[in-house]
Amino acid sequence: METMECILTRRSIRSFIPDKEIAEETMRQLMEAVRWAPSWANTQTWEVVVVKDRDLKQKLVDAAGANRAAQAILDACAVMVFCSRRGIAGAKQGEYSTNKGDWYMFDCALAAQNFCLAAHSMGLGTVYIGRFEHRQVDTLLGLPQGIESVVMIPLGYPAVKEVKAPPRKASSEFVHAERFGRRYFEG
Ligand SMILES: Cc1cc2nc3c(=O)[nH]c(=O)nc-3n(C[C@H](O)[C@H](O)[C@H](O)COP(=O)(O)O)c2cc1C
Hints:
alpha+beta; NADH Oxidase; four-stranded antiparallel β-sheet; two-stranded antiparallel ribbon; 7 helices; 6 strands; 35% helix; binds flavin mononucleotide
């Protein structure tokens, strides 16, 4: 699939064919997409926990509470819990180099988006789940000190053919020329 087509046609998929297996070779390829994501000074702070166990998936659902994507956690072949190491990205000799502090979420997001786009290009569906009890999930997965869960991504074969795209702002609303507030694009 061509890159622009992949970006434009990816949608959040919240309905999967229950438990349909994904080949290990596909999983390897998806993790290659993660591996090659850019990161702050190549720090590669991400860690990915692959959850397939039904009981554990149910516990992830509990941690997600009333979330639109809860069923996707159960039906997914696997839930990728993207985690990230604190205190490294954006830091030099223990000091943060910018006023943004720790870039751990940013780097994790780049890796996660590589994953979602690669999955879509292979006919697989994903959805980001950011609203959940992070500390609860950290404990469930036995994350060591300094590594935190960031986002859960159920992965599976879509049970739906087409998902309506939520509307987007026009580029003219967020692209500025030279200074904020001057439109770069007209209309
Ligand atoms: C950081 C992040 C967190 C999100 N968290 C959730 C979530 O907790 N539950 C959910 O159903 N969707 C979640 N989404 C999906 C967004 O609602 C979705 O990307 C957005 O509505 C645009 O739709 P699209 O992905 O189909 O283009 C999240 C997306 C992002 C980027």
